[in-house]
Write a structure and sequence with these properties.
By secondary structure, the protein is α/β, with parallel strands linked by helices. The protein folds into 2 domains: 279 residues, Aminopeptidase (3-Layer(aba) Sandwich), CATH 3.40.630; 110 residues, Alpha-Beta Plaits (2-Layer Sandwich), CATH 3.30.70.360. Helix content is 34%, strand content 24%. Strands 1, 2, 3, 4, 5, 6, 13, 14 and 15 form a 9-stranded mixed sheet that branches. Strands 9-11-7-12 form a 4-stranded antiparallel sheet, with helices on one face. Strands 8-10 form a two-stranded antiparallel sheet. Helix 3 links the parallel strand 3 and strand 4. It starts with a helix and ends with a helix. The structure holds (2S)-amino(hydroxy)ethanoic acid (HGY) and manganese (II) ion (MN) (2 copies). The site of one manganese (II) ion has 6 residues, from loops. It comes from Actinomycetospora chibensis. This is Allantoate amidohydrolase. Belongs to the peptidase M20 family. InterPro entries: Amidase_Cbmase (IPR010158), Bact_exopeptidase_dim_dom (IPR036264), Peptidase_M20 (IPR002933).
Amino acid sequence: MTLLTDLDDVGRDPRRGGWSRHLGDDAESTLREWFTEQAGRRGLQVETDANLNLWAWWGDPEGPDAVATGSHLDSVPGGGAYDGPLGVASALAAVDALRSRGVVPGRPLAVVVFAEEEGGRFGVPCLGSRLLTGSLDPDRARGLRDPDGVTLAEALTSRGLRPEHLGPEPRRIARLGRFVELHVEQGRNLAPRGEPLAVGSTIVAHGRWRLSFTGRADHAGTTRRADRRDPMVPAAATVLAARATMEAHGDDARATVGRLHPVPGGTNVVASRVDLWLDARGPLPQALVDDVTAAARSAADAEGCTVEVRAESVSDEVTLDPGLADTLATITGAGRLATAAGHDAGVLAAHVPAGMLHVRNPSGVSHAPDEHAEDADVAAGVRALADVLEELCR
Ligand code: HGY
Ligand code: MN
Ligand code: MN
């Protein structure tokens, strides 16, 4: 808990509430320094890989069959204090617990911090783990632009880093035997069960699509209805279509528009363009996107506007390694939990046996300042993670 409260003042967002910590901003840089300092205090050897992920090693970084545990430190805009940092702080505390037990890992053990898991700046979630595993093309990554139009390549260069180094690191992946991510629960499943922990079973299919509506900018007061081609109108219809689609596709469907950006965005101006992003999740996200896109197109036509739809990131459903999940369940005594939140563990799972431990969040609220985990449950998570690492590193 001390490790977490260390971060209380880093990246607080007075306008949105909560915290905003994005790749390359001051807050995220402070978090990297904090992690490096905390790892150093524990005698862990810290390195930054070609994709800005941090690795803090206990044992030989070159050794085979390493065990890695960790999560991310970046946040969504105005996010909570636990999504990401709880997994990193718990991993550091688990190292302390192993030390106090007199355990010397029989395999190399790494605490990992993945870069830009939320995609909060450059728009692609799990940026660091996707680049590391080769599931995101480095050229595409270099050209990703943040809301101010700065590319990832420019952002890296301005920090003295080498954008040309971005790309898969198969040797680093090959040295990994297992990866376990501890994460605050997102959604309310453990409170009703009365359980502090759960072992991850699956991660739902999910993705994010950008819809760009183009019309004609004009004066809010002097432009007659008949002369308007207002992209805000089909954009608004699309927001409502996302809700209707979610309701039409059953309980597991999720369709959300949380981000909408008009250009120029003047109070007295009919917009020329509106970008909105659709977050779709469930058994068949593409079916949701198809329905929302159909509604968007017909609303755009009716207003004399055009609409362009672009997939920004798509993730299939992930089944976390069943054998590892069984091991985690045996060690911790915890039940299973499927999640509709994406994680780096879900990206690594295609290359390394990956598992998750979820720590109870009493209200289930996440991606918001009210995200919470009780101290006792956090402590249970650390003990469980230490037990898991002791067993996996035997
Ligand atoms: O968006 C997600 O599902 C995750 O919390 N990054
Ligand atoms: Mn998140
Ligand atoms: Mn997360």
